[in-house]
UniProtKB/TrEMBL annotation:
<keyword id="KW-0238">DNA-binding</keyword>
<dbReference type="InterPro" id="IPR020568">
    <property type="entry name" value="Ribosomal_Su5_D2-typ_SF"/>
</dbReference>
<dbReference type="InterPro" id="IPR014721">
    <property type="entry name" value="Ribsml_uS5_D2-typ_fold_subgr"/>
</dbReference>
<comment type="function">
    <text>DNA-dependent ATPase involved in processing of recombination intermediates, plays a role in repairing DNA breaks. Stimulates the branch migration of RecA-mediated strand transfer reactions, allowing the 3' invading strand to extend heteroduplex DNA faster. Binds ssDNA in the presence of ADP but not other nucleotides, has ATPase activity that is stimulated by ssDNA and various branched DNA structures, but inhibited by SSB. Does not have RecA's homology-searching function.</text>
</comment>
<dbReference type="InterPro" id="IPR041166">
    <property type="entry name" value="Rubredoxin_2"/>
</dbReference>
<keyword id="KW-0378">Hydrolase</keyword>
<dbReference type="InterPro" id="IPR020588">
    <property type="entry name" value="RecA_ATP-bd"/>
</dbReference>
<feature type="short sequence motif" description="RadA KNRFG motif">
    <location>
        <begin position="253"/>
        <end position="257"/>
    </location>
</feature>
<dbReference type="InterPro" id="IPR003593">
    <property type="entry name" value="AAA+_ATPase"/>
</dbReference>
<dbReference type="InterPro" id="IPR004504">
    <property type="entry name" value="DNA_repair_RadA"/>
</dbReference>
<dbReference type="Pfam" id="PF18073">
    <property type="entry name" value="Zn_ribbon_LapB"/>
</dbReference>
<dbReference type="InterPro" id="IPR027417">
    <property type="entry name" value="P-loop_NTPase"/>
</dbReference>
<keyword id="KW-0547">Nucleotide-binding</keyword>
<keyword id="KW-0234">DNA repair</keyword>
<keyword id="KW-0863">Zinc-finger</keyword>
<keyword id="KW-0227">DNA damage</keyword>
<comment type="similarity">
    <text>Belongs to the RecA family. RadA subfamily.</text>
</comment>
Length: 480
């Protein structure tokens, strides 16, 4: 027999995240760029043959439709994101940065569920039972139907489920639970896959609504294998600034409801409370005139939110003036500054520019471009815009204002809060933009809100009296 005939086959290596294969071990996957996910793949030992089926395949029209009944959590903002509440047997993954308030939110959900007469099992692997009890005392979450267990072994968790038989299971967190007989340490790819699969299998079999807490990486993604997000029914992200009490829950995946909803919360010393109307957290000057400010109407999911944009423009002694941004996209601020200089004549190349939002709000909606431009122009020559004005519109590189989605909802929210005038793009109303000398159209009133449609950013600033003295003001400042 030749040496080639007895040569052992070369081992292959496979990424546990995406399935990418390579002939040698590498520390980082060449496909999904995940670190430490490449391991030696075991050779297949046998081929799977045909076996018995659970039920015969039938035409889809003959499949019986069963209504999925969701049960409220007692936290309205979370029910809004989930699409009505918790569905029996559903697996939910809640991810967020350390200290953002995930445990506090889920303890509140567990307490409210227990008060409704349903049994809850709260499994903590990161804290001791006494630590969770102290938080429950502080937030008023102690109830006889809320059971607490501090475990890090999967077998012990499954035993608790058998004994308690809960209607809701909370595991905080899935990265701290380990399965005996499985390679790797708790939190590793293999361990997380095994623990998650076992808990989800129990949830589906016994119809237990299960909430798994997940860690995030330094880039903000969910830690662990990507397959974890495919296994669960709902993926929620818990977001918030450490310097602010405001928190938001955003649905990334939802098999039982919409994925464009957000829930708003206020995290305080006494626990976490739902915020049904968060606009007051982001708007400070509803009726006063302040230079360098403008109110934008942004959409968070299907909810319109008003946020105040502030700007400060000062002559710079530096060769390269500063551009400091907080709560806004720095690249879009640079684009708005370029449009103001090229198409409106507001030259700020020798000025420091500071732009921020109020209350820790983060504006990523392009419709806030016009509000940023108004705040910058107002700050340039220290002249406030008219009282009770909101501005919304995406600015193009040619200075035009582009269509705004969900305009009726935005206008209704601004009218409800008492604003008097809204400056919007003409194309946003579904009509052609005014042409020629007529660049402004003012012919609508929505619930007491005067809606003014403009063609471009120059027309918007002229309407608000923020362009007539801009050049003269800059020349005076530069002469001094």
């Amino acid at each position: 027999m030749s040496k080639a005939a007895v040569r052992a086959p070369r081992p292959s290596y496979r990424c546990a995240e995406c399935g990418w294969e390579t002939g040698k071990w590498v520390g980082r996957c060449g496909e999904c760029q995940a670190w430490g996910s490449v391991a030696e793949a075991s050779a297949p030992t046998m081929r799977t043959s045909a076996g018995p089926v659970t039920s015969a395949a039938v035409p889809i029209g003959q499949v019986k439709v069963t209504e999925i009944a969701s049960q409220g959590t007692g936290v309205p903002e979370l029910d809004r994101v989930l699409g009505g509440g918790l569905v029996p047997g559903a697996a939910i993954l809640l991810a967020g940065e350390p200290g953002v308030g995930k445990s506090t939110l889920l303890l509140e959900v567990a307490a409210q569920t227990a008060r409704s007469g349903r049994r809850v099992l709260y499994v903590t692997g990161e804290e001791s039972a006494s630590q969770v009890r102290l938080r429950a005392d502080r937030t008023g979450g102690v109830h006889d139907e809320l059971y607490l267990a501090a475990e890090t072994d999967l077998g012990a968790v499954l035993t608790h489920i058998e004994q308690v038989r809960p209607d809701l299971l909370v595991v905080d967190s899935v990265q701290t639970i380990g399965a005996a007989g499985v390679e790797g340490v708790p939190g590793g790819v293999t361990q997380v896959k095994e623990v998650s699969a076992a808990l989800i299998r129990v949830a589906k079999t016994r119809e237990i609504a299960t909430v798994l807490v997940g860690h995030v990486t330094k880039d903000g993604g969910i830690a662990g294998p990507r397959v974890l997000e495919h296994l669960v029914d709902v993926v929620l992200h818990f977001e918030g600034d450490r310097n602010s009490r405001f928190r938001m829950v955003r649905a990334v995946k939802n098999r039982f409801g919409p994925v464009d909803e957000v829930g708003c919360f206020d995290l305080g010393a006494d626990g976490i409370t739902a915020v049904a109307d968060p606009t007051g957290l982001f708007v400070e000057h509803l009726h006063g005139r302040v230079a360098g400010t403008c109110v934008a109407v942004t959409m968070e999911g299907r909810r319109p939110l008003l946020a105040e944009v502030q700007a400060l423009v000062t002559p710079s002694p530096l060769e390269r003036p500063r551009r400091t941004v907080s709560g806004l996209d720095g690249s879009r601020i640079a684009m708005v500054l370029a449009v103001l200089q090229q198409h409106v004549g507001v030259r700020l190349h020798s000025h420091d520019v500071f732009a921020s939002t109020v209350g820790g709000a983060r504006l990523t909606d392009p419709a806030s471009d016009l509000a940023v431009a108004v705040a910058l122009a107002s700050a340039t020559f220290v002249t406030p815009p008219p009282v009770g004005v909101v501005a919304m519109g995406e600015i193009g590189l040619a200075g035009e204002l582009r269509r705004v989605r969900d305009l009726p909802q935005r206008l209704a929210e601004a009218a409800r809060l008492g604003f008097k005038m809204a400056v919007v793009p003409a194309a946003a109303a579904g009509r052609e933009a005014p042409t020629g000398p007529r660049s402004v159209r003012d012919d609508r009133v929505v619930d007491g809100l005067r809606v003014v449609e403009v063609r471009d950013v120059r027309s918007a600033l002229h309407l608000l009296h923020l362009d007539s003295r801009t050049k003269h003001a800059l020349e005076v400042v530069e002469d001094k």
